Amino acid sequence: MSGALVIRLAREGDIPALEELIPLSVRGLQSQHYSSAQMDAALGPVFGVDRQLINDGTYFVVEAAGQIVGCGGWSRRKAVFGGDRDRAGEDASLDPSCDPARIRAFFVHPAWARRGIGRAILEACENALAAAGFHAAVMVATLTGEALYAAFGYAVEERYEVPLAGGLMLPVVRISKSFA
Length: 180
Known about the structure:
By secondary structure, the chain is of the alpha+beta class.
């Protein structure tokens, strides 16, 4: 990652910038694998801000000249994807001795794609979840992100489709990695 880029934990005050970045990232980088209708229906319920990750101190942002150009995190909670818009209450905690951590919600501004931002965030996530005592991680990845995670040793467990509004489906892949 270039010296001009800064990775840090996300703060509550970053939420408006994240809410702008996520649709830009989705529409700019996911169109090779998903239709406009799929992307629009997934924004919010699947692709959205999860404030619990920010509150837990497990969500990172990457800044360039003070602007957020990427984000992503990990979680010690049960949810494997999705914004918190429709979630009621706090997400249940995982047990690091037997449960895998979750890798969650990676988004990069299209103008900053393929510059090592996703890799830097993933490395920060893996270091943090290992320090928290987790021995494995799992995620539900988009088809667009699958190659990045495969390069880090994540293996496919399952391919399936997430139901969206209007009868649409979003193909995704559940992948995992052991650190033990």
